[in-house]
Amino acid sequence: KIADIVTLIQTASLEVTGVNSLFCVAVAPNTTRSNSYYRVFALEDAGVTTTLHVSAVMFGIQDALAGQGGLQRAKLNLGTYGAPPAGDTLDTSQIQSLGSTDIQIPDGNNTRMTVPITADVAPSTNLIVELAIPADAQVKNLFHIGSNTLGERKPGYWQAPNCGLTDPATTQSIAGPGNEVDIVMTVIGMQ
User: pLDDT tens digits, residue range 36-87?
Assistant: First the structure.
């Protein structure tokens, strides 16, 4: 059998819209504090029937401006989520790590980045992806996740402990009525 390419996507579009993101920054100077952005993919919903061999994750970048050198560090984490997401928050005790990779995000606006990362995921599980942006007051990096207002089938989640958001919550529950923040994040693999 020839392997099937699988793209897990929950947004109606991969377009990145400017001035649409949620983020936690220190006011003076304008630097990013710790932010984590999540998506949970139920593999059965995507028609995955055998082990998914993840090969990459793509995420949107609204704004990335490194304090020095044109690159800023971050971490991409893959795991399983032990229950179907319910309500407006994720329970981080339900996350089991499958792997992670340290990355360098280049400066840019309204673009996307694809990161090679591998993991094997059983078809009956929920795959969780986290893009973790660390606080770095010395370097003064600025990062805003790419998002749009074009619709999503499942919610994205945001966590920012320094801004009082200790549990990952849906972007819609934070943005409020009439505002839409659909995090652009996909997973590529084969089954």
Answer: 999 999 999 999 999 999 999 999 999 999 988 899 999 999 999 999 998 9
Q: What's the Cα-to-Cα distance from 14 to each of 63, 113, 117, 123, 182, rounded to whole Å?
A: 15, 11, 20, 24, 10
Cα 146 from Cα 15, distance rounded (Å): 8
**Contact, 127 vs 41, CB < 8 A?**
yes
The Cβ of residue 2 has, within 10 Å, a number of other Cβ atoms equal to 5
Backbone angles phi, psi at 100, to 5 degrees: -155, 165
pTM value?
0.96
What is the spatial distance between Cα 40 and Cα 8, in angstroms, rounded to a whole number?
10
Question: Two tokens at 59?
Answer: 């995420």
CB atoms inside a 10 Å sphere around CB 8: 22
